[in-house]
Specification:
Blueprint lengths: L4 H18 L70 H8 L6 E5 L12 H5 L5 E7 L2 E6 L13 E5 L2 E2 L19 E6 L13 E6 L10 E7 L3 E12 L2 E12 L8 E15 L2 E14 L7 H6 L6 H5 L5 E15 L2 E17 L3 E21 L2 E24 L2 E27 L2 E21 L6 E19 L2 E12 L27 E14 L2 E20 L5 E24 L10 E15 L16 E10 L4 E10 L16 E11 L4 E8 L7 E4 L12 E3 L4 E9 L1
Parallel strand pairs: 4-7
Antiparallel strand pairs: 1-6, 2-3, 4-5, 6-7, 8-9, 8-31, 9-10, 10-11, 11-12, 12-13, 13-14, 14-15, 15-16, 16-17, 17-18, 18-19, 19-20, 20-21, 21-22, 22-23, 23-24, 24-25, 25-26, 26-27, 27-28, 28-31, 29-30
Amino acid sequence: MFHLSLSARLARGTLLASAAILALPAGVQAQTTPSNLPPVTVSPPEQRRATSVRPPRNPARSARAVRPTPAPLPQTAGEQGQGVRGALAVLSAQQALTEINNTPGGVALVPAEAYRNSTVANTIKDVLDYVPGVLAQPKWGDDTRLSIRGSGLSRNFHLRGVQLYMDGIPINTADGYGDFQEIDPTAYKYVEVYKGGNALQFGVNSLGGAINFVTPTGRDPFPNGASFDLGSFGFKRLQANAGGAVGPWDGFVTAATQAADGFRNHSFGSSTRVSGNVGYQFSPDAETRFYFNANEVRQRIPGSVTKASALSSPETAAAANVANDWQRNLDTVRVANKTTIRLDDTKIEFGLFGVDRHLMHPIFQWLDYRYKDYGGFAKVTDDRIIGGYRNRFVAGVNVLNGTTDAQQFVNVGGAKGAQTSSLLQKPENYSAYAENSFYFLPQVAFVAGTQYLFAVRDQKVNFSTNGDVNGRSTFSVFSPKTGLLWNVDPTWQVFGNISRSAEVPSFGESVSPNFLNPSFPNIPFFLIKPQIATTYEIGTRGNRPDFKWELVGYRANIRDELQCQYSSFGNCNVTNLPRTIHQGIEAGAGAAIFRNIFVAAGAPDKVWLNLAYTFNDFRFDNDPTFVNNQLPGAPRHYLRAELLYKHPTGIYVGPNLEWVPESYYVDSANTLNTSAYALVGLKAGFDNGGPVSAYIEGRNLANKVYIASASVINQANPTLPLFEPGTGRAIYAGMKYRW
């Protein structure tokens, strides 16, 4: 186990690495021509010398007449024509956009330019705010209630139903639970979002899909940089990165250290995060890359309070959290290797990874968990002409296994008391997938694929006063998928698909996991089934110079949805709901609604409207207890919008809005709800794609008292602590310099 003083030392060492990179001979460093990458879903400030970039023309247009030649050597924007090879294993944002748009379903790519230089970029909410269909609402510190298409709504703690990855390496533990403390929004070049069954390639087995955070390499433009951010409630952050290339070698490292007192009492937090990678190119068509990530996080937990307390005294923490000093502290080290080989029309990728995680978590008990997760992956992509038709085939395998040494103690004022349990948990996950896209018309592809998952959940009880039992359960599920993808023109796609997802339970679903098949037949148990969802979706997306859009409608018929049934607050007993329905609309758009206001010659100025709207209709389906009630935990309507004036010099200014026009229920009986709210913000800054950018941002300027997120329960009453108040008025400012 690495001690996380390591990450702190690495953070300090990043500045020394920057100096070392600067000392390299001329021509060795990666080129620094600005990037002109078009955004998807969101729109960053105008880039210097930016031009309108359309997605590459579909090779299938000439597929019957011309056999495709191998793809050009990957290059990041700004490197072309200057003799600097791009990384083979890590795509540029434009290449990743082309790749992800081969999916006939809801996907999105968010480049760092869309949020990094114009917001405080503190949480996953800042990254995903303008991706429709994604609900990311803050709770405390870095913790966020994240749901995609209604995934994991009943999970009042941690994350379930969405798999998180960093450079394709799992962030979630091997049994499926996750959190956000290892996410550093300052560290990534872009973020990929795969909704629902569209995340097939990751071996994902969940309703919400997957999110992949991709870090830069030493071959990217502007590999060196430093930034600082300051803001309300004692927020401060210092970040630095360094990188470069020497012949076949390249390297990149980034580190950030931050601290905040927090809006609420008992919500102080601090973190140090370090990420890096080193690549070696054996040839233009073969590359291996080593990844490293380390995190040290210390966070107090203010806890949930009653609705009355949340709306009358939002700064107040839950009394029990203060008395027992509730915290969530995490130390993590992650290492991995990925090798990429290109053979004419075929690309092969394979790798290994390992994660060492230590969770120190005084809550209702003092949780001391040590996770050791490990695994590997292999993927082949073949894109060629067969009989005069373009055919794209993708297949692969994923292995994610682990061991959890779970120790629990009585929490005595934030200190360990008597031990209450000692468990050894062994999750295993083996998945294989294949997907084929056959272009039976030059612009239209028929897509069919499937995924198979075999999962094991094994628990050995060394000692327990909590009712834990020995047991082992196995799960075996297929998830087929079929769809159509129509490239109407180089900037416009229409798609539809039918997909299945299967989600197996994690150990954290219950204090005494009732999905386990106990070793002894005289011990009572409930065998929990996997959650199976069949999702139908249809939609369109496009990316034109002054208009970008995404519109998707979907319906998921779910059998055996995993839901925590709470006999009392905090007492989660997992059960399978017979049938539920998740359906909705995901709409995103960006448009220049005014142009040539003050600048007509050359690059014009413009007023840019950016918005993301999500409609959620999640409900029971003729449930024996709750009939057709709404499922609790998510707003039916959620709108995020901004209106920015953009000057060609890089100056921008404008207001923004976060709006939940209707309250939503927090209990399955539909008796208690949250409250509607609207938050108004304003930001201004400078970013012309060059070395310097700066911003100032005001949030919740009207100082609205509101409920940001809520826990759920079967039957609520007004005295239950289910609500997390949102942050009051806040001002943030920052500056970034890169070279």
